[in-house]
């Protein structure tokens, strides 16, 4: 049983994608700060535990207000696959990669989600066709990402540094696959789906962290605040917004967020970490924004 074709994006969808771009743009900087006080696996696990608790509180609040929908049979195959591809695996890859790559690189790599989503959606999602303009937009956005990273930075280094880059790109591929699965998932309450996928992923990563890293050391100061931030907003609330958008407007529209994340991650790096803004950055932003516009152009006779 597949879900219906996505509806035309409404203002609420645009507001959601912009909000997600800003929220996720802060996540990589927050994870980099949190890594100063904990291991990568425990950071990923802690982020998911806090996110799951946030979603559980939202769900309980809606139930208390009488706005919770009656439970429906759970499509466990989809729920488990989305939990692994949309939370556990990409979170572990990102936190591991951030040990050797800057947070700005991790943010930029998320633009690859759009490059993976659009062709996948063309094959697996009704109504999500890979039009000429979408192809032009993907190419323009990809060129902007390459310029933003810098060809030298992309090719430089080896060993752990290159492994971190590959891990970040791999996390983007996971998010793309999860978006397709979320769209194809049979009807289920979006809040319930977001809470289940985050909770299942949290359990998996807590077990892995205990096996490989032992009992965690609770960080203090700024790393603790960074952990709370990335757990509540980029993980809990953002996962809910993502599910709502994908289920209603489709993964192709959701992929626009991936173009915004690198821009916001670099902007926050400049504002909060005093990272310089170069001419290449300005040109890359122009290309990325042009790519966003091109993917939304519709061919009309």
Helix content: over 70%
Helix-strand makeup class: mainly alpha
Rg from Cα: 19 Å
Number of helical segments with 4 or more residues:
13
- Could you tell me the mean pLDDT? 80
- Specify the overall morphology: globular
Largest sheet: none
Runs in which pLDDT lies below 50 for 5 or more consecutive residues are none
Assess the beta-strand content as a share of residues: under 5%
Distance between the termini: 34 Å
**How would you spell out the order of helices and strands?**
HHHHHHHHHHHHH
Number of strands: 0
Question: Which key terms come to mind for this protein?
Answer:
301 residues; 13 helices; globular; mainly alpha
Give a short overview.
This protein has helices at 11-34, 40-64, 76-97, 103-109, 112-124, 132-149, 151-155, 160-184, 190-213, 221-249, 251-254, 256-273, 279-295.
Q: How does this structure look, described?
A:
It contains 13 helices and no strands. The chain is mainly alpha-helical. The mean pLDDT is 80. The longest helix has 29 residues, at 221-249.
Layout: helices, strands, pairs:
Blueprint: H1 11-34, H2 40-64, H3 76-97, H4 103-109, H5 112-124, H6 132-149, H7 151-155, H8 160-184, H9 190-213, H10 221-249, H11 251-254, H12 256-273, H13 279-295
Helix pairs in contact: 1-4, 1-10, 1-12, 2-3, 2-9, 2-10, 3-8, 3-9, 4-12, 5-6, 5-8, 6-13, 8-10, 9-10, 12-13
């Amino acid at each position: 049983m597949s879900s219906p074709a996505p509806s035309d994006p409404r203002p609420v969808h645009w507001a959601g994608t912009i909000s997600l771009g800003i929220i996720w743009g802060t996540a990589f900087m927050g994870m980099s700060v949190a890594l100063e006080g904990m291991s990568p696996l425990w950071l990923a696990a802690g982020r998911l535990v806090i996110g799951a608790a946030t979603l559980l509180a939202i769900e309980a609040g809606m139930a208390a207000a009488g706005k919770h929908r009656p439970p429906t049979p759970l499509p466990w195959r989809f729920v488990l696959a989305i939990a692994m591809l949309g939370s556990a695996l990409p979170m572990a890859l990102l936190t591991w990669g951030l040990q050797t790559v800057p947070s700005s690189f991790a943010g930029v790599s998320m633009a690859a989600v759009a490059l993976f989503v659009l062709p996948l959606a063309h094959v697996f999602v009704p109504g999500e066709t890979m039009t000429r303009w979408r192809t032009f937009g993907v190419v323009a956005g990809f060129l902007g990402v390459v310029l933003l990273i810098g060809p030298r930075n992309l090719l430089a280094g080896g060993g752990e540094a290159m492994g971190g880059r590959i891990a970040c790109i791999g996390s983007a591929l996971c998010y793309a696959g999860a978006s397709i699965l979320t769209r194809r998932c049979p009807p289920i309450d979006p809040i319930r789906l977001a809470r289940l996928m985050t909770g299942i992923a949290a359990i998996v990563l807590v077990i892995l962290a205990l096996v490989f890293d032992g009992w965690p050391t609770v960080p203090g100061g700024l790393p603790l605040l960074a952990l709370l931030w990335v757990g509540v907003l980029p993980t809990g609330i953002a996962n809910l917004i993502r599910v709502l958008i994908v289920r209603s407007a489709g993964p192709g529209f959701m992929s626009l967020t991936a173009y915004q994340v690198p821009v916001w991650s670099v902007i926050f790096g400049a504002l909060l970490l005093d990272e310089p803004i170069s001419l290449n950055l300005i040109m890359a932003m122009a290309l990325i924004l042009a790519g966003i516009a091109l993917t939304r152009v519709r061919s009309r006779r």
